[in-house]
Specification:
The complex is a heterodimer. Chain A is mainly alpha-helical. Chain A is 75% helix and 0% strand. In chain B, strand 2 (55-60) and strand 3 form a beta hairpin. The chains are: A mainly alpha, B alpha+beta. At the A-B interface, helix 2, helix 4, helix 7, helix 8 and helix 9 of A face helix 3, helix 5 and helix 6 of B.
């Protein structure tokens, strides 16, 4: 079971990640998909079942190996394109595209000339060297820039993700060097027992693949969790405002929040905007004395900063909702100006409203 | 109903694709760029305590005026501006008296005779309001996917985009 997981887990993960990502019009996102595609093709071709199947269908015993290595070279080229885009360049260096293309062409020639893939056979060592040299510039750049990006990253998920990608790529490079030394040992007859260990032969590539795949997708996964959490938190406040003023909703509520797993960016954005619309509607029903009493109460409870502001806002909103529901006349005439508490951009306002919504739920539960 | 919603979304997506997209995104800069493309100035007018609506687009013979509620957060103000810009981009049309808005109160110096169209943001019962609101949301969505000008903005935009979530 463990061996099956090591062999088939990485390709399954790579395909899942490839299909779960939108292509979009942005070149950086397209190149990330290309990296995942190259990895998925490569890892799939090198699984025992596919390896044997391709050999049987094509009549060329080890053709799947060449396909797998072609996929890796493509992934290396795509990674360079991605890095170029991150560095503000439209495209990667032309020499690198040629470098990868020529490496693959030489691999094809060596593959055709080699009688088989036993390491002592002529051409196999050269094949391994060319495969290493074809990917080395891209791998070196991924390690170097991945670590630099990690230092510049402002979010933990991005920082950890970049470090994982750099670590996985370093392990992949180590594996390729090990393969060259192992083949050279067979050709020239020197001992290299380390290279024959299963942990090196099977463990290194599996670890490299998983680290790169997990690292490249960690920011997206963390981002999704962040949005899902905020969307859930905002639910009770949004529903209370929606009951008070149904016109705030672009679309009526459809299904429980817990099942809202897709299209979360737009859903969360809509929820923030609709809550703000609802708060504007409630504005004339707000009472200054309620906010002042809530502020004093929150201070006595030891709250300060944004937590205090969120608690005060929740109490003011709850009182305004009650006043609106009971049919009381507005405390201030419509069109009266006032002040507003919240974030200065979408991200900070989402966090603030999420705090208000949690405080509102607590407030609602205790009154 | 589903077909109608899809058609609306497709129409908005096509409009968003053709829009210039300032990097980093700023709704006011976008208005300036759209105004330059159309050859008609767009004036953004913050107002405190707009009554019944939180944004209004007023088209006169020579310019477009977008009034937006000032007593709300900056991202909400930005969304209101984008909604009114949506009406303008979709070429929505309503006569000045249809909304029941006292235009002379919004802009006392403006001759009511010069006002050609007025559209306010208050609920989404009409197709025009739904279209403008969806367009505003989709502009904001596209702006996010373009990221900002810094390295970390580009990394976030490229790596945080998984699936439709």
């Amino acid at each position: 079971m463990g061996e099956l997981l090591i062999v088939y887990g990485p390709p399954v993960l790579a395909w899942a990640l490839f299909f779960s990502r939108r292509s979009g019009e942005d070149r950086a996102r397209r190149t990330i998909r290309w990296v995942l595609l190259g990895l998925a093709v490569s890892l799939t071709a090198l699984t025992p079942a596919v390896y044997e199947f391709v050999g049987q269908v094509s009549g060329v015993g080890h053709l799947a190996r060449l396909i797998g290595h072609g996929g890796m070279l493509f992934a290396a080229w795509a990674a360079q394109e991605f890095l170029a885009h991150m560095n503000g360049l439209g495209r990667g260096a032309r020499w690198h595209a040629w470098w990868v293309a020529c490496s693959f062409a030489v691999l094809c020639v060596l593959f055709a000339l080699a009688p088989d893939l036993y390491p002592q056979q002529p051409g196999v060592l050269e094949y391994c060297v060319v495969y290493l040299v074809g990917q080395a510039p891209a791998f070196g750049n991924v390690i170097r820039l991945g670590l630099r990006y990690a230092r510049a990253a402002d979010a933990p998920a991005l920082r950890i993700g970049m470090r994982l990608v750099a670590a996985g790529t370093a392990i992949a490079l180590l594996y390729l060097v090990n393969k060259v030394v192992l083949t050279a040992a067979a050709r020239f007859g020197f001992a290299y027992p380390l290279g024959a260990l299963p942990v090196v032969g099977a463990g290194l590539p599996a670890a490299a693949d998983v680290l790169v795949l997990v690292g490249a997708t960690l920011p997206a996964t963390a981002g999704w969790l962040h949005r899902y959490r905020h969307y859930q938190h905002l639910g009770p406040l949004w529903r209370a405002l929606y009951r008070a003023e149904p016109a705030i909703a672009l679309d009526p509520p459809a299904g429980p929040d817990l099942l809202a797993v897709g299209g979360l960016r737009l859903r969360l954005y809509r929820r923030v905007i609709e809550i703000r619309d609802g708060l504007l509607v409630l504005h004339p029903y707000r009472a200054d004395d309620v906010a002042a009493a809530a502020r004093e109460h929150a201070r006595l409870a030891g709250l300060s900063g944004r937590r205090l502001e969120a608690t005060v806002e929740a109490a003011a909103v709850a009182a305004a909702l009650r006043s609106h529901a009971s049919g009381n006349p507005p405390t201030a005439p419509a069109g009266t100006a006032g002040t507003v508490t919240g974030g200065t951009d979408l991200a900070s306002d989402t966090v603030f409203l999420s705090r208000v919504a949690r405080a509102y739920r607590k407030h609602h539960a205790t009154t | 109903m589903v077909t109608g919603a899809r058609r609306l979304r497709r129409r908005c997506a096509a409009l968003v694709r053709d829009l210039p997209m300032p990097v980093p995104f700023d709704a006011r800069t976008l208005c300036e760029q759209v105004a330059a493309q159309r050859g008609r100035p767009i004036r953004l007018m913050p107002m405190e305590g707009l009554s019944g609506v939180c944004g209004v687009w007023v088209a006169t013979a020579t310019s477009d005026l977008i009034f937006y509620e000032q007593v709300t957060t900056p991202p909400h103000q930005e969304h209101i501006i984008l909604h009114e810009l949506g009406h303008l981009l979709c070429d929505h049309h309503r006569s000045p008296d249809a909304l029941g808005l006292p235009v002379e109160q919004l802009l006392p110096s403006l001759d009511p005779e010069l006002v050609q169209r007025v559209l306010g943001r208050a609920g989404y019962t009409s197709e025009e309001e739904r279209e403008a609101e969806l367009l505003a949301s989709m502009i904001r969505e596209r702006a996010r996917s373009h990221g900002g000008g810094t390295l970390t903005d580009r990394l976030h935009a490229a790596l945080e985009d998984q699936g439709d979530g």
